[in-house]
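ARCHIVE CARD
CATEGORY: sequence design from structure
SOURCE FIELD: tokenized fold
FIELD CONTENT:
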């Protein structure tokens, strides 16, 4: 699926905002549906591979446009669509089957999810589309956009997300989250954060 331009995201966000009416619902108490994070890899993502006691095999990799990486000794590995743990298992398996290592211990840690982006619009200093990092919350996401402007209605921030095929929008009380009064929400690819301006 091709990524939408920022102009398309703006239109999309405005339509979503109008569709929800003057006020969006608060976040649900359990929030389980909002906490489901997709951590599979995609083109452009950057991750570290560490092979225990094998410094020559431990390095950082960027997923190429065809969804693969070129790993020493074992060659091309398709990683797009896989969880980091599955990538680690595949590397260990190929090192073992190729008889390069007897019992390899491999770990994978994602540094950048460039294939997954979030749109941050409204009263922030640098509105736009940004890559997300693993377990990145709303507060950190807004900081990527330079933080709030002086006119921002922080606790009026809205999160629009597709859940079970349906677009849903929630009010996110960012000030309460930042002060520790409420837990943060982990952002997901395709999310739209919109920060309105204060009315006075």
């Amino acid at each position: 699926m091709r990524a939408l331009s920022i102009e398309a995201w703006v239109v999309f966000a405005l339509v979503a905002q109008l569709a929800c009416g003057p006020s969006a619902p608060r976040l649900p108490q359990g929030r389980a549906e909002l906490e489901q994070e997709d951590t599979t890899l995609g083109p452009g993502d950057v991750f570290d591979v560490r092979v225990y006691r094998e410094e020559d095999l431990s390095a950082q990799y960027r997923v190429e446009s065809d969804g693969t990486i070129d790993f020493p000794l074992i060659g091309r590995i398709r990683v797009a669509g896989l969880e980091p743990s599955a990538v680690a298992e595949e590397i260990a398996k190929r090192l073992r089957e190729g008889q390069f290592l007897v019992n390899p211990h491999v770990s994978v840690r994602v540094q950048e999810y460039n294939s997954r982006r979030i749109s941050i619009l409204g009263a922030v200093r640098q509105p736009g589309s940004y890559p997300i990092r693993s377990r990145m919350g709303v507060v950190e996401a807004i900081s990527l956009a330079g933080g709030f402007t002086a006119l921002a209605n922080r606790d009026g921030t809205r999160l629009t997300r597709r859940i079970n095929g349906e677009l849903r929008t929630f009010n996110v009380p960012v000030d309460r989250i930042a002060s520790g009064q409420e837990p943060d929400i982990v952002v997901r690819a395709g999310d739209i954060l919109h920060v309105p301006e204060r009315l006075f």
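CARD ANNOTATION: Strands lie at 46-51, 59-62, 68-71, 75-78, 106-122, 128-132, 158-163, 166-171, 192-195. Residues 6-19 form the longest helix (14 residues).
SHELF: design records, drawer C
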